[in-house]
Amino acid sequence: MLRCEITELSELERTCKIADLYKQLDEQESEQESEHDRLSNSSSLGIDTMVALTLDYDTNHTLSDIKRIIDYYNDEYKVIQPISRKKGDIINALVQFELDPENENIVTRRKTMWLYLKVIREDKHLSKYLILK
Fold it and tell me: What is the mean pLDDT of each run of 10 residues along the chain (133 residues)?
């Protein structure tokens, strides 16, 4: 079963304090741990999650975004080697890496860092100091 939730944030909700961000991250990690425990107990994690992640990366991310994610993982492990340069093949290699339970810690860390970047980009003051390649 594929679940999707779309929530529009008010301007007040978009601006947050760093303490609120840490609290939110702690809550998300707790939710992810309980969700992971629930999914570990079920026998069919695979195909639904794989299709959802593949669709998300294909529709919501550019090829350069995906390569930036792979570069982050390769800086740590040097493990993601796509078969070809096609976007679909690169996405498949990324999804397989992220769904491997052994890589759960680095995937969670990467998602946390990306959340930090998003919050900084939305901050009127700090966004002036964020420069990405």
Answer: 64 59 70 58 64 88 89 78 79 88 89 89 83 66
pTM for the predicted model, two decimal places: 0.59
Q: Flag whether 109 is in a domain.
A: yes
Q: What is d(CA 128, CA 131) in angstroms, rounded to the nearest whole number?
A: 8
Number of domains in the chain: 1
Q: H helices within the chain, ranges in order?
A: 11-14, 18-41, 46-60, 63-76, 87-99, 104-122
51 in any annotated domain: yes
DSSP 8-state code for residue 126:
G
Range(s) of the domain holding residue 116:
45-123
Residue 50 amino acid letter: M
